Amino acid sequence: MKTIRLTMGQALLKFLDNQYVEFDGVENKFVKGIFSIFGHGVVIGFGEALEEYQGDMVVYQGKNEQGMAHAAIGYAKQKNRREIIACTSSIGPGALNMVTAAGTASVNRIPLLLFPGDTFACRQPDPVLQQLENPTSISITANDAFKAVSKYWDRVVRPEQLMTAMINAMRVLTDPADTGAVTICLPQDVEGEAYDYPVEFLERRVHHITRRMPSKGEIERAVRTICSKKKPMMICGGGVVYSEAGNEFAEFAETFNIPFGETQAGKGAVPWNHPFNLGGIGVTGGLAANKIAAGADLVIAVGTRLSDFTTASKWLFQNPEVEFLAINVNSFDAYKMNAKTIVADGKETLLSLSQALQEIEYQSIYTTEIAVVKEEWDREVDRLFAAELENGLSQARALGEITKVIEEDAIVVGSSGSLPGDLQRLWRPVKPKTYHMEYGFSCMGYEVCGALGVKMAMPDKEVYALVGDGSYLMLHSELVTSIQEGFKINVLLFDNRGFGCIENLQNEQGIPTFATQFKFRDKNTGRLTGEDLPISYAECAKGYGAKAYTARTVEELKVALESAKKDRVSTLIDIKVLPKTMTGGYEAWWRVGVPEVSDNPAVLEAHARLVKELPKTKKF
Question: Is residue 605 in some structural domain?
Answer without folding.
Answer: no
